[in-house]
Amino acid sequence: MGRTMSFYDLRDAMAQPGCPVCRLMAAAVEHYLDTLLWENVNDAGARQQIRRARGFCNQHAWQLVAGGSSLGAVIITRDVLQNLLRLLEDAGFQAPAVSLRRRAKHALEGRRPPPANAQLVAQLGPQAPCPACAQAETTEEVLIATLVEGLLGDDGLLPAYRASEGMCLKHFRQALSEARSPAVFEALVDVQRTKWQQLVEQLSEIVRKEDYRFRDEPRGEEVGASLRAIAALCGPRASAK
User: Fold this and answer.
1) Cα–Cα distance for residue pair 162/160, rounded to 1 Å
2) How far apart are the C-alpha atoms of 153 and 139, rounded to whole Å?
3) What is residue 34's predicted lDDT score, i.e. its pLDDT?
């Protein structure tokens, strides 16, 4: 079968620490944001997408200014705020849609009362996904499909996958959902079982060496296992970069 760039990206990422899919998703988002700031700030389509999303999610908004608030970030943020201000120009108070008696009944029953100003509140909320999150999700779908399709066969990804630290739980589940043959399923499970067993053994070694009888023993492969285990369950720690 023909090999795509995603195949080779995955193979390279498997030689690095952590989940290869998480690593490549982070790289794709970083590339998207850098390209946005330095090449696409004035792109009408990109700006409209960001306006509809009401900017970026918390993680990606702060990643946008991780290296300092560039002129591009200023222009984008101003544009979003100007768009939100237009929604406030003719805004008027909107009472809750139900009567005071009905609201009291909801309160007595422990139900959330209907909101005031519902139309404006809805308009101020995101009308589209965070563009950086959308980029990450698209990259994720391509990578999972590439991994499953390219896992077996001549010069497949299986040897690199075996030598890697495995996938995080989320991406392992997604890969299993894409597996279309018993052979791919068994290969995925076999590798992941081995990686998790290694982590369990390393964590057990940390616990053992906390015993006063073994505290003087030198540390080995278990060093850093607690952080690797968290990453295996939840993915890498969110950071600005």
Assistant:
1) 5
2) 23
3) 94
